[in-house]
Amino acid sequence: MRLLKKLGWMLLVSLIVFNLGIIIMGKTYFYTAIRKTYLSGQGGPGIYDLTKFATREIPTGTPKPWVKSADYNTGKINPEELEYLKRIKTKSFVVLKGGKLFHEQYFDGHDANTLSNSFSMAKSIVAMLVEFAVKDGLIKDISDPVEQYLPEFNKSGFEKITIAHLLSMSSGLSWSESGGNPFSDNAEAYYGADLKTLVEKMTPESEPGIEFIYKSGNTQILGFLVERVTGKTLAEYASLKLWQPLGAEHASFWSLDKEKGVEKAYCCWYATATDFARFGQMLLQEGYFNDRQILDSNFVQDARTPAPLTVPDAGDNVRYSKRSFWLLQYKGRHYYYLRGILGQYIIILPEENAVVVRLGQKREDSDESGHPVDIYHYLDIAKDLLNK
Questions:
Q1: H or E segment at 12?
Q2: Angle 335-288-279 (CA atoms, 0-180°, nearest 5)?
Q3: What is the tens place of the pLDDT at every residue in 17-33?
Q4: Are 102 and 96 in contact (CB under 8 A)?
Q5: Per-residue pLDDT tens digits for 307-336
Q6: Which CATH architecture has domain 50-386?
Q7: 25, 71, 160, 194: least CB-packed within 10 angstroms?
Q8: What is the pTM of this model?
Q9: Ranges of each domain in the chain
Q10: CA 56 to CA 369: how far, in whole Å?
Q11: Which SS3 state, helix, strand or coil, does residue 200 take?
């Protein structure tokens, strides 16, 4: 009995000390994380978190549904790969061919109208918004220092950091990038309520423009920059420049750090699989879509061109582009793509004149080239379907 009492007191003291530590470190967002993940049966952020956070709508204009190809859904995924898709918790698998809907398949209650979290695919979308701000004359050039547009970064060590450094993940700024550590900057960005303060805590750690080191804080700064120069929220600007011209069939949503707050620019755009596919088709067509040039073709060229950087312990960078896209060589062909932490992908297949969208709840570890190995399955599945 005494032992039980002693253990009870030890547990109580431990809880008090732990909670005091949370408060002293300013990590009170941890309670939000517990409430919105573990207490709801999740182990972390999820693709269906839309209603758990404040959001801002990204309205569409006149919807333009996809035209289905003559051989729409006639091909079948082979049993082994189908089992793999299910095992890795795939929710959507969509293939476009020649600008038409060629194959779409959904799993476990997810359907064509289900909105899913983009996670870090949003980084590439923010890069597009930066380009629109350049074309609108609101940003002179991406080689400009960040402090020129965000005076709060006019402080020692930030002078050399340019917009291009943020786009290519080579700013040299501090940020703890982790999808599993509940005390990382990523966790605070996702569950916290003050992104501006969090970003303003970033400090220079190394010389910019030298190494590719993936950090979500870079894109969050770009989000603030776009908001500042346009005088619009990211959602408003994205609707005007992308979602309406792309003829999306559904409104999409961007998670905010709080009610009427700012968009989580590094993450958390919610849309359907076939609407996400519109980004891929636009890029495949060199920025042209729905009978108009939406995105400058020079941007698309940069989106598939490696940033001239090195990768720690891996030599020259061949995996990340000048404009926040991932680059991949596989079976002698070149691809570029948008990706999110739980296996969200928009893959552009130039030589196949195709686009693949895969949404799901799990992704495999990356290989030595920096790419999650599940992406090779999706390319093989798509090419097998396209060749049937």
A1: helix 2-24
A2: 55
A3: 545 555 555 566 766 76
A4: yes
A5: 999 999 899 999 999 999 999 999 999 999
A6: 3-Layer(aba) Sandwich (3.40)
A7: 25
A8: 0.93
A9: 2-40, 50-386
A10: 36
A11: helix
